[in-house]
Amino acid sequence: MSAANIARLSDRGVVRVTGADSEKLLQGLVTNDVANLALGDARYAGLLSPQGKILFDFFVVRQGDGYLIDVARAKAGELVKRLSMYKLRADVSITDVSDSFHVYASWGPDSKTEVEGRGISYTDPRHPMIGLRLLCKADENILPAKRQAPSGDSRDAYDTLRVQLAIPEGGRDYDFGDTYPHEADFDLLHGVSFTKGCYVGQEIVARMQNKTLVRKRAVKVSGNDELQSNSDILLGEIPVGRIGTVDGTDAIAILRLDRVVEAEQKKQPLTAGGVAITPDEDAVDRYRASAAQRSAAAALPTSR
To answer: Do 18 and 122 lie in a common domain?
Structure first.
């Protein structure tokens, strides 16, 4: 019996980018390095505003003479328009082909075998345990009952996995147009290259990587009771975060980690909807280490 789970991600769409200049166009726009991407390989990336905030998050998959972009379906048409703004006279065709594809996620020990030979599959580059993604023709049903995720609602089972791995999604766990890549953990989830050339918003991202203490992050939190999506996380009466995707008493939240440290020092609880909240300790420890590093660097004498 297969140990793989497969979930249909009906909220995902697909944009096709083809033409002789497709690599050049994407390479100059998105946060990750897509140059020389092998057929069937993928990059997790984003397209930012000039102010460095995430407008879209997606996977770029090399296919044929161009690319397929796995993006939130509600954002696919907007992504086509945004990319077309930068196209100018480049030899590129940009099309929303969401109606032609279904997007799936597959995870578990047998996930690679389960999706082999079905559509276009690629390893999700964000985390070793998040499995594979699969783009199939819309008229192909790959979800007979025995292959559905065990919860009965395949999307819920996938979201449970995301929560446990602390992998946020734009529009569900953070707001498009109001979140920097570091706040959405792009640097931790292989969503940004710090060695490629320029792209939209690159200067802000580089500054946050090299000079800024990132105080706000997407992290896993746990409550002492059921959590509710979109609840504010409070320190006393002060909002310091917001709950996103929920899995019972666990959730992904955008959270001010400096205020978490402050709460610990003052022995004050964090709450969301009256439920006591405990942030993931590894995420808090990473913040402490980064704060100590920035503090040490600031204490060094400057050369004249």
So the answer is: yes
Whether the predicted pLDDT of 142 surpasses 80: no
Taking residues 190-213, what's their average pLDDT?
A: 95
Q: pLDDT band for 138, please (50, 70, 90 cuts).
A: confident
Which of residues 136, 151, 166 is at a domain's end?
151
Residue 197 falls inside a structural domain = no
Q: Give the tens place of pLDDT for each residue, 234-286.
A: 999 999 999 999 999 999 999 999 999 999 999 999 999 999 999 999 999 99
* 263, amino acid identity: A
Domain co-membership, 23 together with 126: yes
- For residues 287 and 214, give the distance between their C-alpha atoms in angstroms, rounded to a whole number: 8
- CATH number reported for the structural domain that contains residue 87 in this entry: 3.30.1360.120
Position 192 scores a pLDDT of 98
Residues in the chain: 304
Pair (30, 145) in one structural domain: yes
